[in-house]
Amino acid sequence: MNPETTASHFNAPGQVVTVLNIDSGNVNDTYRVIKRTTYSENQFILQRISQAVFPRPDLVMSNVKAITDYAHDKLEAQSGNSKRIWQLPRVIQTRDGSDYHLDADGNYWRALSMIASATSHEKVLNPEHAHEAGYVLGHFQSIIADFPADQLADTLPGFHITPQYLKQFDKVIEKDEAQQRLVASSEARRIAEFVEDRRIFASKLEDAVESGELHHRPIHGDPKISNIMIDDITGRGTAIVDLDTVKPGLIQYDFGDCVRSVCNPAGEEARDLNEVYIDTDLFQALVKGYLKQADKFLTDADRKYLYHSIRLIAFELGLRFFTDYLAGDVYFKTSYGSQNLNRARVQMKLCESIEVRELILRRVLDGE
Ligand code: GN1
Ligand code: MG
Question: Is the dihedral angle over the CA atoms 15, 17, 23, 29 positive or is it negative?
Answer without folding.
Answer: positive
